[in-house]
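Retro notes
What went well: the complex prediction finally ran end to end.
Inputs used:
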Amino acid sequence: MMTRKTSLKDIAQAVGVSTTLVSYVLNNKKENRISKEVAQKIRQAAQDLNYRPNQIAKSLKLNKTRTLGLIVADIANPFSAALARVIEDEADRQNYTVIFGSSEESPEKFQKLTTTLLNRQVDGLLIAAPAGTESQLAELQKQAIPFVLIDRYFPALKTSYVALDNAQAMYKAVRHLINSGYQNIGLVSFNTSLFHICERGRGYRQALQEAKLPVRKSWQKEINNAHIASEVSKAIQELVLGPKPVEAIVFASNTLTIAGLKQLKRLNKKVPTDLAVVGFDEAEAYELFETPLTYIKQPVQEIGELATQILLDVLNSNNRMIQANLEAALVIQDSTRPVMTPVLL
Amino acid sequence: MMTRKTSLKDIAQAVGVSTTLVSYVLNNKKENRISKEVAQKIRQAAQDLNYRPNQIAKSLKLNKTRTLGLIVADIANPFSAALARVIEDEADRQNYTVIFGSSEESPEKFQKLTTTLLNRQVDGLLIAAPAGTESQLAELQKQAIPFVLIDRYFPALKTSYVALDNAQAMYKAVRHLINSGYQNIGLVSFNTSLFHICERGRGYRQALQEAKLPVRKSWQKEINNAHIASEVSKAIQELVLGPKPVEAIVFASNTLTIAGLKQLKRLNKKVPTDLAVVGFDEAEAYELFETPLTYIKQPVQEIGELATQILLDVLNSNNRMIQANLEAALVIQDSTRPVMTPVLL
DNA sequence: CAGCTATATTTAAACGTTTAAACATTTTAT
DNA sequence: ATAAAATGTTTAAACGTTTAAATATAGCTG
């Protein structure tokens, strides 16, 4: 019953040649040396026996698995999911398979994941690193394991990465708000050491400073990623109902944006009448908000493709260390409608 | 430089024993036979040399990869993403790795994916099958490849599956609408041969029939999955603005629900004042809609866990063919607020 | 001390590939 | 006619594991 899968040996036996010859034919090697008839017979037999090369054996021999490991921050996050999809596509195009895992922002889970993936002999890694994993990455580097960081990176670490120009992205958003007549602008970001998030804060402050607007500590809310719902609710409440209410809020991630919009809805604050809002990232959810949202759009496609390409280049020893900070687009919609100036009224 | 990874052989050499012994020690086999000191020395050496077992070699030898293949319909869909996450977790708990791919509902892509995954010698497959893949599944079955269907299944195919009790789920939703005073109820579903979707239609009709309400063809919209945005827009328009407008709409998937809500917003129809709505599946997006949505909640966790467990049981030859139709919950919120009856006014 | 048992370790083959090198046969050149 | 070159195919080893079977050594029994 349980017929074993056909191997090169089986084909060799069927045709009456050596497995070597079968291997050569099926891999199109030494083409000029092999007689047409035999090659034909071998191909026919392979087809007849429904031959499927055993990638495991191949991997063992060649010490290459044509498999990439992908570690995302949280596969349930649409940004991660989109990235995973792009990377999977690009890898597939180059005949690579992707194994993925989600670190849930935990350094321990991250450690475990890299171990698992490396045990499976992935050829290289694409990593969205959680906070506090810098030393782990340095260790990988020391072991000469090829990897490319995506989305997040550590300025002190000399590695290839593909990320956003986060400061610029946020700067652009805040400039847009200022140009649209908003002056009291709040920020809802994370309480984290992650460099890319800090950069978003920096872009926000830089835009305010350049416009000679005050940079208030109380308007920069830092949320703990583990308690988004409650902390964002509180933050928004303080921003819009406090003694110095803001005229606009800019968010530093899609999850923060969604939590924020929910709370604004709950507080019955109207956008942009009561305040303007700029979201981060795209999300289907935004489209169901009362007002079409102005948001910072990340080039997910480019990030995923470039990162994959860099990694594959490294694997094919076309060595190149690349540090890319791609530019975000600001999609301007009604949530940041320009303020009617008193002069015009 | 590029130091090769340490193998059993290296450890054996370091300690001065055979690789066999190293293998035994590191796998805790023949424990009672091996001298404590040697075992200790071997373990120490393994640690010192940072030994990582080569899973590829192991797989080749044991003809088991401890890898599951997961084929989802579309990883960008939150339902798929959630499922992937649950499955990944459950597999990981049993020390299995998951390789996944997304068929995008295409039988060709599906074919390619199964081939890829099988070439990588996955031990078994978890499959959300696209329409038109029944024969491919039958073929897998013929080749005695262990798999479990998730979410979708084919009644004619004797396979293990874990899915929803789709008819029941929809029946429940429509009954709830009827009990809440709605009589003219529209359905937005897919134009597909997929059994689980058809079942949703059946549940809808059954509820209407039992309540002696007319079942109108024009109230059952069938959308082509490739053109959701445009076709749902049109369907909604017809349902709410046509000669016989409906009082309620029930959707047959999360994507349809989101597209529908967007259009209702565009048409400025108020829920539940102008009409009631029942969504399918959960989605973060629902929470940003003007009205908290009544929706059919799938037990994603259970589906993923059960499917994985069944597959693993099969792999451990605790054979069991299981066909599970799990029950959905109806989360009742404001979008189906009971109609004020004239009597009460 | 022969024979047995228990304990500790090794030998050798296998999993399914790849590939350098060897071998055998035919063709070409001189 | 013979050496050299070209053509076609095979041999053998290797990748890093696992594991049945063989072997070696010591301890015990009567």
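What we learned: DSSP finds twelve helices and twelve strands in chain A.
What to try next: split runs per interface for comparison.
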